[in-house]
Amino acid sequence: MGAGASWFPLPFFPPMFNFSANDLFLLSRTEYRSCVVFLMRDDSTRRVYRLYDFTKALQITPGQPYCVSGKVNSADKLYLVMESVKVDTKHPRLPTTVLAPADGAGG
Prior knowledge:
The chain is an all-beta fold. It contains no helices and 5 strands. Strands 1-2-3-5-4 form a 5-stranded mixed barrel.
């Protein structure tokens, strides 16, 4: 380094990667002060994703398949940040998992 140069450590920002998934069904929605967290299940792979909506503007209806895109921030914890969501018209079917009522009632 030269006489007037100094070294300042830059803050570490983990790399962001694009994320997209199809055939996702809503399992639950939880609203927090800073974001809405959607728990969604990929009906074809059976994976469950926790998706964060910091805009609190995305609307998701149970029983419909969705295409979701956004960013993945992989630091010590994986965050899937949603940027857009639309109904998945290529997979218009109900999920294969039927959730039981919370009170245990059923047919």
